[in-house]
Specification:
The complex is a heterodimer.
Chain A (H helix, E strand, L loop, with lengths): L2 H7 L10 H15 L7 H32 L8 H22 L2 H8 L1
Helix pairs in contact in A: 3-4
Chain B lengths: L1 H13 L6 H20 L2 H18 L9 H19 L7 H9 L5 H15 L5 H12 L4 H8 L3 H18 L1 H5 L6
Helix pairs in contact in B: 2-3, 2-4, 2-7, 3-4, 4-8, 7-8, 7-9, 8-9
């Protein structure tokens, strides 16, 4: 052990002040009170996703059918009357689910995976 | 045995008994405050940093997998807190020119000189690049235990040894006159 080692080893111990534990525990209790994670609402989210599936399937089926009939006749494809409604509903569903996902905080997600 | 007590306390905290965390604080407040003090050399700031570290550890407790000793994990959490805080708050570093000046000066009280020199050398560690600073601080904090320093840093021992070697070489070069001056009698 040389001079440098001696000087760096002999740090005088610092004793925490008597209030330290109480101060830390006050901060911990405040943390515990404010960060009770809300459970992520998986059931509504999954129900929303499940509702999206038939709508998406119907929209795809209509789009493919319309494109195929347009392609055979040579005329530009025409969409059936329900198509706009289906696409709008689909977009609304995705917007709803993405909003739920965005609002779910990281704590709730990590709590779910733990 | 200490680790078992820590694990039991962690289990109770995870089951909702927040006050069980006081056991962990009581057991580790000294080491965490002292580790913080080695990074900032300010007792008030050291307690503030240690408190942040405990709160961060409490928040991260559900993610502790229990693979390592609790203390190793706690020190790693604290190290991350100290590093990120110290990047934002500049700690007063000692200009190395001031150390060289002290080597030439005459002190009446030799004990005062010795303690003052030791404090200034410890502060000079903070002027090193971060990776050398962290390796040196943890190595001396863990009583020259490279393996424990490596575990806290999450690095292989060989990497930490290389960082220690390089960091000490920089310090020795910068403090050359200061280390030899006045140390012979001690």
């Amino acid at each position: 052990m040389d001079a440098l080692d001696r000087l760096l080893t002999e740090a005088e111990p610092l004793t925490p002040t008597p209030r330290f534990t109480a101060s830390v525990m006050a901060a911990v209790r405040a943390e515990a009170a404010t960060t009770q994670p809300l459970p992520f609402p998986w059931q509504p989210a999954l129900a929303g996703l499940a509702a999206c599936l038939p709508i998406a399937a119907a929209a795809c089926w209509m789009a493919i059918g319309s494109a195929a009939s347009g392609g055979l006749s040579g005329a530009p494809p025409t969409f059936p009357p329900g198509f706009t409604w289906a696409v709008t509903s689909l977009a609304a569903c995705f917007a709803l689910v993405s909003t739920i996902l965005r609002r779910a905080d990281a704590g709730a997600l990590s709590g779910l995976s733990a | 045995m200490g680790d078992e007590a820590d694990r039991a306390a962690v289990q109770r905290v995870l089951e909702g008994e927040v006050d069980a965390f006081a056991e962990i604080v009581g057991r580790w407040q000294g080491p965490l405050v002292n580790l913080a003090h080695r990074f900032c050399h300010d007792p008030g700031l050291a307690e503030e940093l240690a408190q942040d570290a405990f709160v961060r550890a409490y928040r991260a407790l559900p993610r502790w997998r229990g693979e390592s000793r609790f203390s190793t994990w706690l020190f790693a959490v604290a190290l991350n807190v100290y590093r990120s805080r110290l990047r934002r708050v500049r700690v007063a570093e000692v200009p190395l020119d001031a150390l060289r000046g002290m080597a030439d000066s005459r002190f009446v009280d030799r004990e005062y000189e010795r303690r003052d020199r030791a404090e200034l050398v410890r502060r000079s560690v903070l002027s090193l690049p971060e990776k050398y600073r962290d390796a040196l601080v943890l190595f001396y904090f863990h009583d020259l235990d490279v393996a424990e320093a490596a575990r806290t840093l999450g690095l292989p021992e060989g990497t930490v040894k290389a960082q220690l070697h390089r960091g000490r070489a920089i310090l020795r070069r910068k403090l050359a006159g200061f280390l030899t001056g006045g140390d012979e009698e001690g």
